Structures are given as C-alpha cells and as structure tokens.
Amino acid sequence: MFWRVSILLILGIFNLVLFSRMIWGPTGLVEYRDLKRQHAALLTEISSLDAENRALSKDIRLLQSDSQYVEKMIRQRLHYMRDNEVLYLFGSSAQPSPGASAHDGKN
C-alpha cells in the first residue's frame, strides 16, 4: 500500500512538472504565443517594405524614362524655378538659407 501511494505521488509530481514545462517552459505555450506575435509583426513589416520597394522601383523607372517626371521632382524637392516664376515657401522650409542674412536684397 505504501509503495502504491508513493508511486502515485511521484507520478503526480512528475505530471505537474511536465505540465508546467508545457505552459511556461522554453518551448511552451507562452513562448509560442510570443513567437506568433513576433511573426505577425514581421509579416506586417515585410508587406510595408514590399510596398515601399514597389513605390521606389516605380520612381526609378519614371526617373529613367520620363523627363517630365524628372523636371517635376527637381522642382518639388530642390525648389528650382523656371524663368519668370516666383516660388513661395510656407512652413519650416520658408526660413532663410544658412548663408543668407536678414538684409539680403534690401538697400
């Protein structure tokens, strides 16, 4: 009788250890949920990077083949102007260039 109880007690403790490792162990359910969450985040990042890559590839193709697009980008990003045009800058980009003073162009 004593042996039966001791064997059942040992087996019960062994089952509790196995169950706790199944839940909280290095390959348990908690770790699985964390890895699943990381996997979903990485898939989202991959899809956003793919979209950005497609947009950049489109820009490259347009810059290589479309002269009107090249002119548009130069005018937008570098603030170049044609003759007889006036450029108005609003917001933070309206500050004077580092070499300009407040009296430039004034007499």
Report what the structure shows.
There is one protein chain. This protein is mainly α and about 110 residues long. Helix content is about 65%, strand content about 0%.
Structure summarized in a few sentences:
Helix content is 67%, strand content 0%.
Write the layout of secondary structure elements.
Layout: H1 2-24, H2 29-65, H3 67-78
Averaged pLDDT: 85
Distance between the termini: 112 Å
Order of helices and strands: HHH
Radius of gyration: 34 Å
Low-confidence stretches: 99-107
Kindly state the percentage of residues in helix.
55-70%
- Structural class category: mainly alpha
Note the beta-strand portion: under 5%
> How many strand elements?
0
Attribute tags:
rod-shaped, 107 residues, mainly alpha
